[in-house]
Structure formats: structure tokens, C-alpha cells
Design goal:
With 494 residues, this protein is an alpha/beta fold. The protein binds flavin-adenine dinucleotide.
């Protein structure tokens, strides 16, 4: 009996922690495992909801039908619309639970944002963002509080314990898991009377899976910020007959600085920290391809910038700006996690200090003339000079006749010193996974649930397709936590 539980959850982060709390609140005996030694820091700071209590207090109301229409269009309906609506119908419950049970008792707050400013269709934005913060606008390290809650609810939490395989009975129903101990490799079997929930995240840290399931993502990203995302939970599901999304979905930041001369096709560094993290990349300044030519409207969702770049030679781009641009960052009015720093725009001095660090690291180049900058960035001199000249002319008229960037984001590059950086994508997470139905049950290729098997978060699929809609700030975290809670509740009710 020692190794027998009602519900077993693999992955103790956003989806898994919420699943564990929800199942335990329903009276289930729960085992929560994670292959790493901690998971607290993975609980994310921007959470999306529509009309949560915090949003009501701030007078914010997000139009559900409009948001669902937008997401359906954004994903070109390559999704299970029932899952979109399931999220929209339950995200507020999750936000309220988080606020009442995790944040308030520990002095944290949900801080709603109402800055969804947009002027063009491509930038359509919603006030979904709830920043999880301290009352003085600092970071709330609420992952610790979630893990405390998990323990308070009587969940057995085992770190350094990896889901290796699912165990099934003759009918194909999932009856338990086989795990391995991280240091000894010792295998253990645990029985689950009511269900197993896969909350193990995506596969961006697994080069072989990236090449197989998301080959363009492998080329256009120069970094992956999910070193532990090895796809092992998804593989375990596939082994017992689960269906999987057939096309990739990802969340990619345009913030991956690389040294001049990098071969992006071969460069895929699995690393969160380091000099390649370039915050200002998410600002819609002048961007050119490796031929020194402007190639599109920089004022688009951050992942669209990387998609457009991937249609240019070398899967890289260069961002170009001048000293005085950095005194006017607030005027770009970026939103959610494309804003600089926390809780919003870095002040000018902080931003300049960061740029100086990147210069010292050799990532950012600084020059007194555009010709010199072109040389340092290894871009064709005449092309870059012409691109900057043309851009400045349009900034002067306030009309981008080449690509239609909004006037408030047209800032000239006409006062030295000039700066430039070569950039590719930073993969935050893959978002395609095991197919589930609205009960969070994992389904097979015929759409039938595999009895007692559930999935949530980035290990699950059918919700995202292609790019991440960053103008619905906090959507991945909310998707993971909301679906985690539903999976926990449903499994406990078996
Ligand atoms: C730097 C950064 C910042 C981000 N900020 C935000 C944000 O503010 N808002 C937002 O909406 N999104 C954000 N995201 C995206 C968000 O983090 C993810 O979408 C979210 O964490 C997904 O949650 P998850 O529970 O599905 O998986 P994860 O958070 O990836 O957790 C999976 C867990 O499973 C464990 N695991 C994996 N395999 C196994 C196995 N075989 N056995 C046992 N355990 C296993 C892992 O160790 C990990 O702890 C950010 C991402 C990054 C990289």
C-alpha cells in the first residue's frame, strides 16, 4: 500500500502543482513527482484571466467572445476550439483560487494591467494580464508558496524522481507509473487508483526531438530557455497509444543575441542565463536582414518578428538603434513580457547599463558612423547605409510607406553613437503535445480517452498552434495552471 495513491502527477511546476492541490482538495491521496531537485522558480509571473476578482476590482472586463474569435483566427483554427473555451470559462476560477489561497495568505497580490494599447490589427491586444507581485511591485516568488500549499494539503512530494513509463492493464487503462531516482537510477513502481496526470512540459531541451517535431524552430532559435524540457512525459504518453499534435507550436522571444558570424542553423544553446539574453530585442526598432536590408514591420507580436526573420538568409537579423532611442523606450508602449524589466520599463540608466554589459560581452556593437557599425556587424555597408537613410526619411514624415509601422514606433537612427546586435530566437517553450479532450483526458488517434490518463500544460496539445499570442499576456501560464486544476479535479473524481 505504501506505493499506492489515488492520483499521481508527473511534473511539479505550473500545471503539476495546481493539479496536485486540486486533487488533494477533492480528498484524493496524491503523489507529485519531479525529475529535478526543485520547481519553485518555474511558477511564472504573468497570468491571464478575463474577469477575475482582481480585474473586477480594477474595472477591467475582457470580452470573452471577442477573445475567443481572436484566438481562433490567430491559430487559423488549428486547435480544438472546445479547449479554448474550456480555458476561457475556467481561467478566472484559477486566478481567484491563486489569489485567495496562495497570494493573500503570504502577502502577495495579483496586479491587473490595463495597457493593451494597439493601433493595427496585427497588434490586437487584450487586458488579460495579472502580474503576480508583492504590494510594492517586486517579484513574488510564489512558487515557494505553492509548494508549501501542496505539502499543507497532504500531498507526497518527491523531487529527483522521473516518470519513465506508464503502466497499463489489459484493457489499456493506466494503472500507475514506473519512476527512476535521479542519482541512483533505481526504478520504483507506484500504483494510481484514479489517474495519472502528465505535467512534464515540452521538448525544447531535447535537440533530437526538436529536429524531428519542430525542425524550423530548431533553426530559427539560437537558445532554448527550457533545459529540463526533454519531452519524456510526451514520449511516455505516446508509448501507451496517445495521439499527439501533428504540427509544432512554440513561444519564442526575439531576444537571442549571438556573436557576429554565428551559424544559426547549428547554434542551439540550451541555456537560460548568459550574455545571449538581450532584453531590448523585443522593442520594435529598426531591424534588417544579414544583407543589411529592412524586411518587414518590426511592430508585430514578438514571435512574428522571428518568423519573418526565418524567411531571410541565415535565420538571423540585426537590430539597429542610436543612443537617444534609449531615452524614449516608454513611447514604444510594449506590453506584457515584451516590456523591459520588472514591473515595466527599465529606466534609462538601467537599460544603458545592460547595453554596456552586452558591449563588454561582445554581443552589442557600438560605432560613431553607420559605416563603422556595418563593418562591426559584418553587414554590407552600402545596404545598411541606404536602409538607415530610408528609415530615417520615413520617421521624419511619420509614415512607414514600406511596411506600415505605427507612427508612435517610428524613431530615427540619426544621432551617433549607433548600436547594433545580431539576433535570433529564444525558445521559451514548445506548446504542442499530447491530445486531450475538455476533461483533460489524453485521447488516442480515434479521439477515445485512454482511461485514467490526463495531461495538462505544455505536455498537452490542441490549444496552441504556430506562434504564441503574446498580446494575450500570461496565456501559457494560465493555460498550464487552469488545465492542471481541471485535470486534478477530474482525476480525483474517478
Ligand atoms: C524565462 C521564462 C519566463 C516565462 N514567463 C512566463 C510568464 O510570465 N507568463 C506565461 O504565461 N508564461 C511564461 N513562460 C512560459 C511558461 O513558463 C510555461 O508555458 C509553463 O511553465 C508551462 O508549465 P508546465 O507545467 O506545462 O511545464 P513546466 O513549467 O515546463 O514544468 C514541467 C516540470 O516537469 C518536470 N519534468 C519533466 N519531465 C519529467 C519527468 N519525466 N518526470 C518528472 N518530472 C518531469 C520538469 O522538471 C518541470 O519541473 C515563461 C517561460 C520562460 C522560459
Amino acid at each position: 500500500m505504501e506505493n499506492t495513491y489515488d492520483v499521481i502527477i508527473a511534473g511539479a511546476s505550473n500545471s503539476g502543482g495546481m493539479a496536485a492541490c486540486a486533487a488533494a482538495e477533492k480528498g484524493a491521496k496524491v503523489l507529485l513527482i519531479d525529475k529535478q531537485g526543485s520547481s519553485q522558480f518555474l511558477y511564472r509571473s504573468f497570468f491571464a484571466a478575463l474577469n477575475s476578482n482582481a480585474q473586477k476590482r480594477a474595472g477591467i472586463k475582457v470580452d470573452k467572445a471577442k477573445l475567443m474569435n481572436f484566438l481562433t483566427l490567430f491559430f487559423q483554427d488549428n486547435v480544438d476550439e472546445r479547449l479554448l473555451w474550456t480555458w476561457a470559462n475556467h481561467a478566472d476560477e484559477t486566478a481567484n483560487w491563486l489569489e485567495d489561497n496562495i497570494l493573500k495568505p503570504n502577502g502577495g497580490v495579483l496586479r491587473p494591467q490595463k495597457d493593451a494599447h494597439y493601433e493595427t490589427v496585427v497588434n490586437t491586444a487584450f487586458n488579460t494580464e495579472l502580474a503576480i507581485a508583492t504590494p510594492d511591485n517586486g517579484w513574488a516568488h510564489y512558487g515557494d508558496w505553492v509548494i508549501d500549499k501542496v505539502k499543507e494539503l497532504g500531498v507526497t512530494l518527491k523531487y529527483n524522481t522521473k516518470l519513465e513509463e506508464l503502466v497499463t492493464d489489459d484493457s489499456g487503462a493506466v494503472t500507475g507509473v514506473i519512476t527512476s531516482d535521479r542519482s541512483s537510477g533505481e526504478k520504483t513502481e507506484y500504483k494510481a487508483n484514479k489517474g495519472v496526470i502528465i505535467c512534464t512540459g515540452g521538448y525544447g531541451g531535447n535537440v533530437e526531438l526538436m529536429k524531428k517535431w519542430d525542425p524550423l524552430g530548431y533553426k530559427k532559435n539560437v537558445y532554448s530557455d527550457g533545459p529540463r524540457d526533454d519531452g519524456s512525459g510526451i514520449l511516455a504518453g505516446l508509448k501507451v497509444g496517445a495521439a499527439r499534435d501533428e504540427e509544432p507550436a512554440e513561444i519564442i522571444f526575439d531576444r537571442g543575441a549571438v556573436p557576429v558570424g554565428t551559424n544559426a542553423e547549428e547554434h542551439y544553446q540550451i541555456d537560460f542565463k548568459g550574455p545571449g539574453y538581450f532584453w531590448m530585442g523585443a522593442y520594435p526598432m529598426l531591424k534588417v536582414n544579414l544583407n543589411g536590408e529592412r524586411f518587414g514591420n518590426e511592430s508585430v507580436p514578438y514571435q512574428f518578428d522571428i518568423n519573418a526573420m526565418a524567411k531571410q538568409p541565415g535565420y538571423l537579423e540585426a537590430q539597429i538603434w542610436s543612443e537617444d532611442t534609449m531615452d524614449h523606450l516608454a513611447q514604444f508602449r510594449t506590453q506584457g513580457c515584451s516590456r523591459l524589466g520588472w514591473p515595466g520599463i527599465y529606466n534609462t540608466e538601467q537599460n544603458k547599463a545592460e547595453i554596456q554589459r552586452r558591449i563588454d560581452d561582445g554581443m552589442v556593437q557600438k560605432a560613431d558612423t553607420i559605416e563603422e557599425l556595418a563593418e562591426k556587424l559584418d553587414l554590407p555597408k552600402d545596404n545598411l547605409v541606404n536602409s538607415v537613410k530610408r528609415y530615417n526619411e520615413m520617421c521624419a514624415t511619420g509614415v512607414d510607406t514600406d511596411f506600415g509601422k505605427e507612427k508612435f514606433r517610428l524613431f530615427p537612427v540619426d544621432k551617433p553613437p549607433y548600436y547594433g546586435v545580431i539576433m535570433g530566437g529564444r525558445l521559451l517553450a514548445t506548446l504542442d503535445g499530447l491530445r486531450i479532450n475538455p476533461k483533460m483526458e489524453v485521447i488516442d488517434k480515434k479521439g477515445q480517452p485512454i482511461p485514467h490518463l490526463y495531461a495538462a500544460g505544455n505536455a498537452s496539445g490542441g490549444f496552441f498552434w504556430g506562434s504564441y499570442p503574446d498580446r494575450v499576456p500570461g496565456l501559457t501560464c494560465s493555460h498550464a495552471q487552469t488545465f492542471g486544476r481541471l485535470a486534478g479535479q477530474n482525476a480525483a473524481e474517478n
